[in-house]
Amino acid sequence: MIYLLAIFLPPLGLLLNGQVFSAILNAVLIVPSILLGLIFPLFFLVPSAHAVIAVYMRREDRKHREIVEAIEKHGVPPKSPN
Fold first, then answer.
1. Is 40 in a helix, a strand, or coil?
2. pTM (2 decimals)?
3. Cβ contact 47:30 at 8 Å
């Protein structure tokens, strides 16, 4: 769901993901993207791509943080015999 918002309403998707600074940057990025998109249509995708990448990186950071906290709390898992 957050990825759909990031594609169709990039600043709102970033805000709901807890990334206020990225949402402001994305809102500012929309204006030049629209102007340049009139000449090169590929520029219309820049704000959406920025939002999707930012949401993905934030989720990966959360997963990484959870794994590190689990290792710190429970220790390193034992090695499997191969």
1. coil
2. 0.83
3. yes
Split at pLDDT 50, 70, 90, the class of 82 is low
CB 2 within 8 A of CB 13: yes
Which residue bears the tokens 């629209």?
A: 34
The residue assigned the tokens 């219309």 is 44
> Which of 14, 31, 32 is CA-nearest to residue 23?
14
pLDDT tens-digit readout, 40-76? 999 999 999 999 999 999 999 999 999 999 999 998 8
Q: How far is CA 79 from the centre of its chain?
A: 33
User: What is the number of alpha carbons within 13 Å of residue 39 lying toward its C-beta?
Assistant: 4
Task: Give the model confidence (pLDDT) of 30-46 as tens digits.
Answer: 999 999 999 999 999 99
